[in-house]
Design goal:
The protein is of the alpha+beta class. The chain has nine helices and 13 strands. It has two domains: 137 residues, 60s Ribosomal Protein L30, Chain: A (2-Layer Sandwich); 168 residues, Phosphoribosyl-aminoimidazole Synthetase, Chain A, domain 2 (Alpha-Beta Complex). The radius of gyration is 19 Å and the shape is globular. The structure holds adenosine-5'-triphosphate, thiamin phosphate and magnesium ion (3 copies). It comes from Metabacillus arenae.
Length: 330
């Protein structure tokens, strides 16, 4: 499968003709949005988790796997600025998974679903040969005209991210024993960030109040997601490494690793986006009043769909590197 590129594959299978004019976002964003009869907008998306690719039984409990499986999907709803409502689970179970473990996965999901008031409305259960596969479909709603499209960025905009970046990838490298940390509080924090991502639904909802906001959630890494916004909006993006928010815990680790985790690590499930300068002053005020973290990391400029990274006054083109299924550049 090494010749298979995830992103060019999606481009190849993307339909060239849309049959329903009610469809607002076809393939190419975090979720699909379409009009329903009463004029409201429904938001739908699906993501799959595979044992060995997204999680390992050796270091994650069934509850943790379930929590994360739903969280990463809610994160895509947050990246459209929508309100989560329902979810469906398709699960392919190999012989070495016991029923009580599968129920544990559902318990992990149910815990998070309660927080976001989501109902489990269906799914599918099948057997499979070797690896557990969990496919989660989520459905949300959004008001007309307030969708966080990747194509909404405009020259002059501020580029922002929520939370801190790189913690999840650092936590994964701790679990995989690629790095070690002496302080148990630091390793606990980073591993927790890997196992329990917080979908930024509240942040997405506040951001939806702006007249125009571009949004993407960080699953494959900051560099990859910024490229997706640059490509969808046909703009150039410039970011400053120093301004990317990093946790105090990650800052105790090696500088070259921090850079790799922050830019290319992925699974942060924070939101990255752009908004006008006027909206940005307002966003900062709302964030302070409502106790969430959001930081300016760069600007949008006219120009080709590229991403530039400034570091110690040196500017370099940032490659679209990050997590790409089938590609081994990580
Ligand atoms: N096999 C597929 N068939 C049809 N559409 C697909 C397929 N795979 C992805 N897509 C669509 O391509 C677009 C980009 O998908 P992608 O999975 O990269 O985004 P994402 O779900 O936000 O990221 P991630 O999966 O890394 O969390 C989305 O619109 C998605 O629905
Ligand atoms: C055991 C194990 N090895 C590696 C990783 C890292 N990882 C897997 S998928 C992915 C990108 C997001 O997934 P997707 O693009 O499918 O949404 C990343 C960063 C992990 N979580 N567990
Ligand atoms: Mg996404
Ligand atoms: Mg996806
Ligand atoms: Mg991905």
């Amino acid at each position: 499968m090494s010749l298979f590129d995830e992103f060019s594959f999606i481009h190849k299978i993307k339909p060239t003709k849309i049959l329903h004019s009610e469809l607002i976002t076809p393939i190419g964003d975090d979720a699909s949005v379409y009009k329903v009869l009463d004029g409201a907008r429904q938001v739908v998306c699906v993501d799959t988790m595979v044992e060995g690719v997204h999680f390992l039984k050796e270091f994650s409990t069934p509850e943790e796997i379930g929590y994360k499986g739903l969280a990463v999907n809610i994160s895509d709803l947050a990246a459209m600025a929508s309100i989560p409502k329902y979810y469906l689970i398709s699960i392919a179970i190999p012989p070495h998974w016991k029923e009580e473990e599968i129920i544990g996965i559902y318990q992990g999901m149910a815990k998070l679903a309660k927080t976001y008031m989501m109902d489990l409305i269906g799914g599918d259960t099948v057997s499979t040969g070797d690896k557990l596969v969990i496919t989660v479909t989520v459905i949300g709603e959004i008001e007309k005209d307030h969708i966080g499209l990747r194509s909404n960025a405009m020259p002059g905009d501020v580029v922002f991210v929520t939370g801190t970046l790189g913690d999840s990838a650092a936590g994964l490298d701790l679990l995989l024993k690629k790095v070690s940390v002496r302080d148990p509080n630091i390793s606990h924090f980073l591993i927790n960030r890997h196992k329990y991502p917080s979908p930024r639904v509240k942040e997405g909802r506040y951001l939806s109040k702006m007249e125009r906001v571009a949004l993407n959630d960080i699953s494959d890494g900051l560099a990859s997601e910024l490229h997706e916004i640059a490509e969808a909006s046909q703009v150039s993006i410039k970011i400053e490494f120093r301004d990317i928010p990093k946790s105090k815990e990650i800052l105790t680790l090696r500088e070259d690793l921090i850079e790799k985790w922050v830019l290319f690590g992925g699974e942060d499930f924070e939101l990255v986006g752009t908004a006008s300068v006027d909206s940005w002053s307002f966003i900062k005020k709302i964030a302070k009043e409502n106790d969430f973290q959001i930081s300016k990391i760069g600007i949008v400029e006219k120009g080709p769909a590229e991403v530039w990274l400034q570091r110690d006054k040196v500017e370099q083109k940032l490659k679209k590197s990050g997590y790409n299924h089938f590609k081994q550049d990580r």
